[in-house]
Design goal:
heterodimer; A: alpha/beta; Rossmann fold; seven-stranded mixed beta sheet; five-stranded parallel beta sheet; 22 strands; B: alpha/beta; about 40% helix
């Protein structure tokens, strides 16, 4: 019987059915549920790796060892994993390896919208693009066969709309797959220059074979309609095309690297007008045009954001744009914000108050950049806060460093904050680094990591001691504070910023959404004392509202009694309900 | 050609339980034998941002996302979210608005005003507007967190889903200890919609 599954769960199922026994990932929206779902299957090994590079290396090792292996990450994770990936593409596999690149057109939850199909061409690995959950399952399954047949890691490239859309899936039987035998094979797996030169030749050879495979693979198929308009498309955009352009002829590509040149040329020759519709970069379009085929693409369609059926219909003049009610212009935007009781709020309130230069990082706490907290100067990628704080210091001097902090979460610190911290010590910076330790990878939905003491299956595992780690790399000044004790936090910051030595302050308090306890304490606003100054509102907490007519603050049902706003109120108007 | 398709848009504020609502409705229509697609939102927007989940069902569904001007029902967990997504409603469609105000960040920080009368404005534009105080109904049933299931009841009645199918889906998805409250909330919502027509 068919059932509804998000694309990510279908990928996990496909890997399980294909007999994969090892999986590794670092959490990242929209990829997170792939390996967390896979971990629920019996008889498999799955892990949260410290970062994507490690995940890819664990994957490479498991593959060389003979197991079918699944590796998953969000698009920017592939940047981190690119180093092992590019050379693993030379060595090839033993047990098949499929890695997922979960791209995020429209940046629902990301810092850029890079198109990772580019990596397919760059690293010379095959790229598969499913268009719904059933294909996500089927293509993953088939991906392991392709990987073994062509001796290459296979990229399954998905986008947010596939990862997080539920569509109908018919599950298959789990295949019994023998582990591949392990034999020492230096020329294949030891990438010395002499070996690598030979392997590069192999890569080109197998890529030639892959091209032939793509010409006849059922993953690439033509759906003939009328011949006035032919569309080449892939991934979830295929679904939009089906909806927007009923009757058009469609070449649906399931393999987007390498492209089937003969199939495309033949299709192009039979339609009057050829349009390539692909989100983000003109990956297919540029190759098609390079073969001298007349086609349209990015002349009509944007390089930015997500597409939709209505947008495709409109651009090809099929329909008039819908005339709506237009009320959306009257409502204020609703960006995400820190939860009531979030420990990060105390940190960003304090950083704002102290007017510090803040080098930020990736996590829920990036929301500290938004008004009214506005306590962030830069945020680039995972781990960048620490290295960029050192760079600021080296550019502008120690005096500037005494007003600069790096702010990084616990999971992000383990991901890629340790090496830049070593740089600060080694090159004698004086930076102050704040590690916001909320005991989880919060933004992706609360995954464990090496410093939580739990593994992917919530079983106890050795806990990375952040204080000991920081000391071991040579930081002498380490202290742990409660981010919701504002005096404590501010004192620590002042003292460590004034020190002409590097320091680490660990702001330690668990994410408010973890292991929710029923809050018995309650706060209220004393109407006699409240002056309506709105200072409490500057913490941008959904637990406190303002009555415009009475000019009074008031606590509402979202308040979790974290005790932050009473510390902010200068009139002591926010009080604990006694008894 | 495409058969009849029903498009439901569920909008609200991250954390209000839109995801659970869409999963219950989707589960019920799957059991009825339809092709179904649901588009969800995970990640950053769940932290109090504007969220939208979409349920589409019919004989054959392609796109997981709904086009502007084609939603049969717009179910809004919060007042101004109804206004934000109103363009997606088709002419003759129904909007169900939970009479709940959640201030967005620009309002909290004093940079924007919350448009107070927005639900009445919508009612003036859309003949089939139903405004409900799901939060207090849920409170009456024993838990304000069941507000989303009150809305499930209303929505399922509005699109004529058989009661049994939805109750089965609720039993499957809601944790057993919260089942009684949720079924009560569901019935309240269902009856409310029956009387609202």
């Amino acid at each position: 019987m068919k059932k509804l599954m998000i694309g990510n769960a279908a990928i996990a199922r496909g890997a399980y059915e294909a007999g994969a026994t090892v999986a590794a990932a670092y959490p990242g929206t929209p990829s997170t549920e792939i390996v967390s779902t896979f971990a629920q299957y019996e008889g498999v090994y799955a892990e949260w790796s410290p970062n994507e590079k490690v995940a890819m290396e664990v994957g490479a090792g498991a593959s060389i060892g003979g197991a079918r292996t699944l590796v998953a990450m969000k698009h920017v994770g592939v940047n981190v994993a690119a180093d092992p990936l590019f050379t693993f593409a030379y060595t090839g596999v033993n047990g098949g390896l499929v890695f997922i690149s979960a791209d995020d057109p429209g940046m629902h939850s990301s810092q850029n919208e890079q198109d990772n199909r580019g990596y397919g061409r760059f690293a010379k690995v095959p790229v598969l693009e499913p268009a719904d959950s059933q294909e996500a399952l089927d293509f993953t399954r088939l991906g392991f066969e392709i990987s073994e047949e062509f001796d290459a890691p296979v990229m399954l490239r998905i986008t947010t709309r596939l990862a997080h859309s539920q569509t109908m899936v018919a599950e298959g039987e789990k295949k019994e797959v023998q582990m591949k035998a392990y034999r020492k094979n230096g020329p294949k797996f030891v990438m010395l220059p002499g070996h690598a030169r030979m392997r590069h030749a192999e890569v080109e050879k197998k890529f030639h074979k892959l091209r032939e495979y793509a010409e006849t693979s059922p993953l690439n198929r033509i759906e003939w309609g009328h011949k006035e308009l032919g569309i080449i498309t892939s991934g979830v955009v295929y679904q939009y095309v089906k909806e927007a352009l009923p009757g058009a002829s469609i070449l649906k590509l399931g393999i987007t690297n390498p492209l089937p040149q003969r199939l495309i040329t033949d299709f192009a020759s039979q339609v009057e007008r050829l349009v390539v519709i692909e989100e983000l970069e003109p990956v297919i379009e540029e190759q098609v045009k390079s073969w001298g085929i007349k086609a349209e693409g990015k002349e009509i369609f944007t390089l930015q954001g997500e597409y939709s059926p209505e947008m495709i219909a409109e651009k090809l003049s099929w329909t008039q744009p819908a005339v709506g009610f237009g009320l959306d212009k009257e409502v204020p935007p609703r960006p995400p914000l820190l939860c009531p009781g979030c420990p990060h709020r105390g940190v960003f309130h304090t950083l704002h108050k102290m007017r510090l230069v803040v080098m930020g990082d990736i996590g829920c706490y990036t929301l500290g950049a938004l008004s009214p907290l506005e306590a962030m100067d830069a945020c680039i990628c995972m781990g960048a806060s620490i290295g960029s704080a050192l760079g600021m210091e080296k550019a502008r001097g120690e005096e500037f460093a005494s007003r600069t902090v790096a702010v990084i979460g616990d999971s992000t610190f383990v991901h890629s904050g340790i090496t830049p911290l070593i740089d600060i010590v080694y090159n004698q910076g004086t930076s102050t680094v704040l590690i916001l330790d909320n005991d989880t990878t919060a933004m992706t939905g609360h995954q464990d990591h090496p410093a939580t003491g739990m593994n992917i299956r919530s079983e106890p595992s050795p806990k990375l001691d952040l204080v000991a780690l920081v000391k071991a790399v040579g930081i002498k000044n380490v202290r742990v504070v409660d981010p919701l004790q504002l005096d404590q936090l501010q004192t620590a910051l002042k003292e460590e910023l004034n020190r002409r030595e590097p320091s680490v302050i660990i702001a330690k308090r668990a994410c408010v959404l973890l292991n929710k306890v029923v809050q018995t304490e309650r706060y209220y606003v004393d109407k006699e004392l409240c002056k309506g100054c709105r200072l409490c509102l500057r913490t941008c907490c959904a637990g406190v509202s303002f009555l415009d007519e009475e000019k009074l603050a008031v606590m509402n049902h979202n308040c979790v009694a974290c005790g932050l706003c009473p510390q902010v109120c200068t009139f002591d108007a926010i009080k604990k309900v006694e008894g | 050609m495409l058969g009849q398709t029903t498009n439901i848009m569920i909008v609200g504020v991250g954390g209000q339980g839109t995801l659970l609502t869409s999963r219950i409705i989707a589960q019920a229509v799957v059991a009825m034998g339809y092709d179904v697609k649901v588009s969800e939102v995970h990640g950053m927007a769940q932290r109090g941002g504007s969220v939208v989940t979409q349920v589409r069902y019919g004989d054959k569904i392609y796109s997981p996302i709904i086009s502007k001007g084609t939603a049969d029902v717009l179910l809004a967990f919060e007042k101004i979210e109804a206004a934000r997504w109103l363009d997606y409603l088709k002419p003759g469609g129904m909007v169900i608005i939970n009479n709940e105000r959640v201030n967005p960040l620009p309002v909290m920080s004093g940079k924007a005003k919350y448009p107070d009368d927005i639900h009445n404005k919508i009612a003036g534009l859309v003949p089939r507007t139903v405004i409900v105080d799901a939060t207090s109904i849920a409170e009456g049933c024993g838990n304000i967190k069941a507000a989303n299931v009150v809305l499930v009841g209303m929505l399922s009645q509005a699109i004529n889903l058989p009661e049994d199918q939805v109750v089965d889906a609720i039993r499957e998805i809601v944790p057993p200890k919260a089942l009684e409250v949720n079924l009560a909330a569901f019935n309240e919502g269902r009856q409310l919609m029956t009387s609202a027509g």
